[in-house]
Amino acid sequence: MRHAYRLRRAVNIANGSTLGGLLVAAVGRARFAPGPDGLTVAHRLRLPMRSDAFCVGNVILTRLDAARLPQDGPLFAHEARHTPSTPAAAAWSCCPCTGSPPRSRGC
Length: 107
Description:
By secondary structure, the protein is an alpha+beta fold. The chain has one domain. It is built from five helices and four strands, in the order ααββββααα. The protein has a four-stranded mixed β-sheet with strand order 1-2-4-3. The longest helix has 12 residues, at 3-14.
């Protein structure tokens, strides 16, 4: 695994976002499988979703079955690009400088 992926995994574990992804997967009774580049895939998620997949920390959550998930396909590559931005997006949404009132920010 490349150094950047190890760093991403360590940061996502340290900030708790990977734990959050694992909790969402557990609530949704997903099945776990190792994914590419240090990611964990939670497939067959039983929660309503608007897209084929989303990521929380280093966990890619999807309603699709493992047999329909190409590990080297564009879906995983797309979701993997989001993993470093998850904590930054959450922090930004709670930032007072965004101009939205605290209630609408969920803070």
